Amino acid sequence: MSIGTVLLRLRDEFPEVTISKIRFLEAEGLVEPQRTPAGYRKFSPADVDRLAQVLRMQRDHYLPLKVIREHLDALARGERVPLTPAGQAEIAEGVWDQDRGEPTAARIGRSELLATAEVSEDQLTEWESYGLISPGPGGSYEAEAVTVARLVAELGRFGLEPRHLRAVRAAAEREAGLVEQVVAPLRRHRNPQTRAHAEATAKELAELSVRLHAALVQSALKVRFH
Question: How confident is the model at residue 202 (pLDDT cuts 50, 70, 90)?
Fold first, then answer.
């Protein structure tokens, strides 16, 4: 199959996939299509299945490409390697805290963020200037930056610019601060199980906070529109 045909086959499940994204995954070694004498890519059904697996793991688990490649290679060797459930920390290079003996959040590089979120360098730079996305040590990003980038881009389609979203960012920081106040005593505990309970509690509180925020926005809109 040509790359255009592959795109059409993937679009049903992954409507945001693009030819540039497929080429990026090829450049990263996630798929290796054959080439015609003229240099055109020719994808096999197995290549398409592998691309679908990669896209699912990015979408559902926010795994770094290196971890996805290693996972698929292990499966090809007949090894059974379970994936960590979405929303939990992924065990990968640089995401395991050796000092504390517990997982930390998975991180991705700048080029991977741009390709996965399908945004431009200029867009990302602008969003960083407004504090909507912030790189960490070494220039890497939290996996959640992909979701943030996609949502900021979607809001941009309705005319909402980054400067309009600073209030949303500030509100998120305040909500995170409230969650931190609740779980801080648990996180400082020496018992690993207690610290793990703190992480689970923080996630639950975050989910409740998001649901409350959405409900309050909907309620405020109903007041304004009626």
Answer: confident
Torsion sign (Cα): 5, 38, 34, 117: negative
pLDDT tens sequence across 143-198: 888 889 999 999 998 899 999 998 899 988 999 899 899 888 887 877 777 777 78
Instruction: Supply the DSSP string of 77-144, one letter for each residue.
Output: TT---PPPPTTSPP--TT-EETTTTEE---EE-HHHHHHHHT--HHHHHHHHHTTSS---GGG-EETH
Specify the long-range contacts of residues 51-59, CB closer than 8 Å, at least 24 apart. Answer: 51/6, 51/10, 51/22, 51/25, 52/10, 52/13, 52/14, 54/25, 54/30, 55/10, 55/13, 55/14, 55/17, 57/83, 58/116, 58/146, 59/14
Rounded-to-integer distance, Cα 49 and Cα 53, Å: 6
d(C-alpha 201, C-alpha 194), whole Å? 10
Token look-up 């971890």 returns 67
Contact 33, 41 (CB under 8 A): yes
Using the structure block, give the residue that is written with the tokens 């809001």. 155
